[in-house]
Design goal:
754 residues; binds calcium ion; binds MU-OXO-diiron; Neuraminidase
C-alpha cells in the first residue's frame, strides 16, 4: 500500500515517556491550565494550552462557561470566599467490587431513575415486576444500552443548553434470557421449547427497540415523567423507513415492502450517537441471531445471497435466538424465518430478504414523534455500535466513525457528500437535515499499518478489488453497502479485536475506539475465524479466571486515530493504543502495557464517550474475564494524544522455533491524575450508555442485565437470583433484577468526575 503523504508521524520517544522531548505539551501542563480555563479565557491569555482547552470548552457543546462552582453571594462588606477548587479526577478511586450495588466515590450520589417496565403513559399500570406485566409498547424496554440526552427549554422546546429538563433517548438492546426465553419478564420464566407462545413472543418483541423519556430536575433530585407527551416507544412493529442508497433496492424487497422502502422495527440496538443537528443515532448490532434459515435454504436460493448470509452469521439451518418465528402464522412472526419460501424471483412473496433490512445506523428525532425513523444505509450494514461525528467544520464534509463488533471485524468511516453549514445545527426539520448529510457519501474501511500509520480505503463498486472480488459478485453500490463486511474483505481491511464504541476527543479531535476483547487472536491461527496479532491488535496472552485459561486478548484495548491534514476527508491517519486493558498484576512487559494499578485496572472496554463539559473520557466495561474479581465498571480518563507514549515490540515464540515480532505503539502510562475507577455496578451487570446535562453536573448511566447469570430454573426463588438490583436499592416492586438508568450527581453540586 502507498505510504500516506498528507501527514508525518508524530515524534515519539521510544524509551521512556518521562524524557519525551517532542514539542507536544506534557499533559499535566494541559490539565492544570484546563482547570483554570475560565480565568484564562477571561484574561484572553493565549497559550498553547488555552488553544487546546478552548477547543474543549467552546466547541458548541454545553455552553459551559459556568464550569467553576459559583460561591453564594456574600453579605455586603465581606470578602467573597474563593470558589471551591475543581480538579479533574479529584475524587477517590472506587475499589473493585463484587457487591450487588452501584458503588460511586465519596461525595457522589447514584439514584435509580428509569427501569425496565416503568410506565410511559399516565394510563399504564405500575410495574409489578413478577412476570405478569404486559403492555410493553407503553413501558420502558429491556437492556438499557446506548443513550443520549436532548435538552428541553423551560417551555418544552428543543435546546442545546438546558440543564434541568430533557429527553433521554435510549436503546433497549435485548432481553435477559437463557436459551429461548426471556425469563425474568415471564411469570414462570417462559417457554424454553418450540413453539413459543404468541403472548411471550409479543412481549419480547415489544421489549426490544428504543425509548424516549422525559426527565427533569426537581430540587436536588431527578425524576422521569410517566405522562410526558414526548415519551415514546419504538419496537418490532414500528414502521421504519429505509433511506439512502439501499432504498428501493432489490436486496430489501419483502412481502411487507414490495418496493423495498420500509421495514418493521430496529433490532438489538447497542451504541448510539448524536448528530450536529440534535437527532439520535442508534446502531443495530447482533440482529442476525434473531433470524432462522431452513437446513435446505442454500439449494432453494441457489444464488450469491448464500455468501452474504454466511458472512453475516446465518448459515443454513441456523436456529433463531428466541424462536419468534414459531409464534404463529401471522406475518409478524413469519418474518423471522428468512428461508426462501415463495415462488417469486424478487422475494416479494416471502421474507428471504428481511435480514437485509437490519444492520444499520438508525436516525430518530427524539423531539418529534411525528417524524419518520430512518435507516441510514449509506453508513453500511454490519454489527453497528456507536456512530460518532468528527468535529464539524463549516464548508467541509462531515465524518462519522463506526465499528463492527464481532471478532476480527472492521472499523469504518462515512464521509458526507454535503459540506457542513453551521446553520443546520438548529434546522427546524431535523430529519430532513439527516437526509442531507447521511443519505449520500463515501464509506471507508480502516487498514492499520505496522509503522503507526493507517489508511481509509473507500468501499466503492468502482474499486477493482471490489468489482472483481472472487468470493462475491457485487451488483451495485447498494450491494457494497449491504455487504460492507464482504467489501472490507475484498480490500484487505484490518481485522480488529471487536470494535465497540467510539468517541471524539473534544479538544484534539482524535477518535477513540474500544476494542473489547478477542478470543480468536492467536500467534499461529488455525482456521479462518482466527487471526494473528498485528500492530493494532498486538496482544496474545493467557488470563486465568479461576482455573480457566482465557486465550487471545481477553482484556481488550482502546485504539485512537489522528486524521491527516485533510481532516474529515483524510485517507490516511496516525494511530496508537490509548490504553491496554489488564489486571494490575499482569506482566508489565507483555500484558499490562499501560501500567495499570489496582485503582485503574479493567477488562473489556465497551462504552466510551467524552464529556463535552469536562473533557473526561468515560470508559465502561462489558466484561466476562475479570468478573471473578470485580463486577463491571466505569472509569474516568484524561487522555493525552496520539504519539504521547512509546513503541513496544512484543515477541511471540512459534512452534517451529522462530519468533513472531509485533511492533505496537502504546500511549502515555496511566497515572493517578489521568485514569481512575469511578463506578462499579451490581452483580452480573454491564455498564453502558452514558449521557450528561450540558453543564456536566448530571451524568446518566445505564446498568444493563443485572443478575443475568441467574439460572432460568431459579425464577421462583428470589434468594437464588444472583442480583436483586434495583429493588435492593429501594426502587420499585418485586425482587427480579431490572436493567435501569441511574443518574449520578455530586453532593456539592459540582461537575461529575471532579
Ligand atoms: Fe451490544 Fe457490542 O455490545
Ligand atoms: Ca484473571
Ligand atoms: Ca456494547
Ligand atoms: Ca459488549
Amino acid at each position: 500500500m502507498n505510504k500516506p503523504t498528507d501527514l508525518a508521524r508524530i515524534p515519539v520517544d521510544h524509551d521512556d515517556i518521562d524524557t519525551n522531548v517532542s514539542s507536544n505539551e506534557h499533559f499535566s501542563t494541559v490539565l492544570e491550565a484546563r482547570l483554570s480555563r475560565r480565568s484564562l479565557l477571561r484574561g484572553g491569555a493565549a497559550t498553547a494550552a488555552s488553544a487546546l482547552l478552548g477547543a474543549i470548552g467552546l466547541s458548541g457543546c454545553g455552553g459551559s462557561d459556568n464550569d467553576t462552582v459559583t460561591a453564594p453571594t456574600p453579605p455586603v462588606g465581606t470578602t467573597p470566599p474563593p470558589p471551591p477548587p475543581e480538579k479533574l479526577l479529584g475524587f477517590s478511586a472506587v475499589s473493585k467490587s463484587l457487591a450487588d450495588t452501584v458503588v460511586v466515590p465519596a461525595g457522589y450520589t447514584a439514584s435509580v431513575l428509569y427501569a425496565l417496565g416503568d410506565p410511559l403513559t399516565a394510563n399504564t399500570a405500575a410495574y409489578k415486576n413478577d412476570g405478569t406485566d404486559g403492555d410493553f409498547e407503553n413501558r420502558a424496554g429491556d437492556h438499557h444500552d446506548g443513550m443520549e440526552f436532548f435538552p428541553l427549554s423551560s417551555t418544552g422546546t428543543a435546546s442545546t443548553s438546558a440543564n434541568d429538563r430533557g429527553l433521554l433517548a435510549m436503546n433497549h438492546e435485548a432481553t435477559t434470557d437463557e436459551k429461548l426465553s426471556s425469563f425474568f419478564v415471564h411469570a414462570n420464566g417462559g417457554t424454553m421449547t418450540l413453539p413459543r407462545p404468541a403472548a411471550e413472543v409479543d412481549k419480547e418483541m415489544a421489549l426490544h427497540g428504543l425509548s424516549v423519556v422525559e426527565v427533569r430536575r426537581n430540587g436536588a433530585k431527578w425524576e422521569y415523567l410517566k405522562d410526558s407527551s414526548f415519551n415514546r416507544r419504538v419496537h418490532q412493529q414500528t414502521e421504519v423507513e429505509i433511506s439512502g442508497p439501499v432504498r428501493g433496492n432489490a436486496l430489501v424487497v419483502t412481502k411487507y415492502s414490495t418496493n423495498g422502502t420500509k421495514i418493521r422495527g430496529t433490532l438489538n440496538n447497542c451504541g448510539t450517537g448524536k448528530t450536529p443537528w440534535n437527532t439520535y443515532l442508534s446502531g443495530e448490532e447482533n440482529w442476525a441471531g434473531y433470524f432462522t434459515r431452513a437446513a435446505t435454504d442454500d439449494a432453494a436460493r441457489g444464488d450469491r445471497s448464500v455468501v452474504s448470509l454466511n458472512r453475516y452469521g446465518r448459515n443454513q439451518g441456523a436456529a433463531s435466538r428466541h424462536g419468534w418465528e414459531t409464534g404463529g402464522t401471522d406475518d409478524k412472526y413469519q418474518r423471522w424465518d428468512i428461508s426462501k419460501k415463495g415462488a417469486s424471483i424478487d422475494g416479494s412473496d416471502d421474507y428471504r430478504n428481511e435480514m437485509n433490512g437490519m444492520g444499520y445506523i438508525v436516525e430518530m428525532d427524539a423531539y418529534d414523534k411525528a417524524k419518520a425513523i430512518k435507516k441510514r444505509t449509506a453508513l453500511g450494514r454490519f454489527a453497528h455500535e456507536s456512530a460518532v461525528f468528527g468535529k464539524p467544520v463549516a464548508g467541509q464534509p462531515l465524518a462519522v466513525y463506526m465499528g463492527d463488533d464481532s471478532r476480527n471485524e472492521y472499523i469504518f468511516k462515512f464521509v458526507s457528500t454535503a459540506v457542513w453549514a453551521a446553520a443546520d445545527a438548529t434546522a427546524a426539520d431535523r430529519i430532513a437535515t439527516g437526509d442531507k448529510y447521511l443519505d449520500s457519501g463515501k464509506l471507508y474501511v480502516a487498514k492499520f499499518a505496522a509503522d503507526g500509520t493507517g489508511q481509509w480505503i473507500e468501499l466503492s463498486i468502482s474499486n477493482p478489488a471490489i468489482a472483481s472480488y472472487a468470493a462475491y459478485k457485487f451488483a451495485d453500490q447498494a450491494d457494497v453497502l449491504v455487504n460492507a463486511r464482504l467489501a472490507g474483505d475484498a480490500v484487505g481491511a484490518t481485522k480488529m479485536d471487536r470494535p465497540e464504541w467510539c468517541s471524539v476527543h473534544p479538544g484534539t479531535g482524535e477518535i477513540y475506539f474500544t476494542l473489547t476483547n478477542n478470543s480468536n487472536r492467536r500467534v499461529e491461527p488455525s482456521g479462518s475465524s482466527q487471526a494473528a496479532p498485528d500492530a493494532a491488535n498486538p496482544r496474545v496472552y493467557t488470563d486465568m479466571k479461576g482455573t480457566t485459561a482465557q486465550q487471545g486478548n481477553p482484556n481488550g484495548h482502546i485504539i485512537r486515530v489522528k486524521e491527516g491534514t485533510a481532516g474529515s476527508t483524510s485517507t490516511s491517519f496516525n494511530w496508537d493504543v490509548y490504553l491496554f486493558g489488564a489486571e494490575a498484576g499482569a506482566a508489565a512487559a507483555t500484558v499490562n502495557l499501560s501500567g495499570l494499578t489496582a485503582d485503574q485496572d479493567f477488562s473489556s472496554p465497551d462504552g466510551l464517550a467524552f464529556s463535552t463539559s469536562t473533557g473526561i473520557c468515560w470508559i465502561q466495561t462489558d466484561d466476562g474475564a475479570y468478573t471473578d474479581v470485580t463486577n463491571c465498571m466505569m472509569l474516568a480518563g484524561v487522555p493525552g494524544k496520539v504519539g504521547d507514549g512509546k513503541k513496544v515490540t512484543l515477541n511471540y515464540p512459534r512452534a517451529n522455533g522462530t519468533t513472531l515480532s509485533v511492533d505496537t505503539y502504546v500511549g502515555q502510562t496511566a497515572t493517578t491524575d489521568t485514569l481512575k475507577r469511578f463506578l462499579v455496578g451490581p452483580v452480573g451487570s454491564e455498564i453502558t450508555g452514558i449521557a450528561e446535562t450540558p453543564d456536566g453536573k448530571a451524568l446518566f448511566v445505564n446498568i444493563q442485565h443485572p443478575g443475568e447469570n441467574t439460572a432460568a430454573g431459579n425464577i421462583a426463588d428470589p434468594a437464588k437470583y444472583t442480583s436483586q438490583w434495583p429493588s435492593n436499592a429501594g426502587y420499585g416492586a418485586g425482587k427480579r433484577p431490572r436493567s435501569a438508568t441511574i443518574v449520578i450527581t455530586k453532593n456539592d453540586g459540582g461537575r461529575i468526575g471532579t
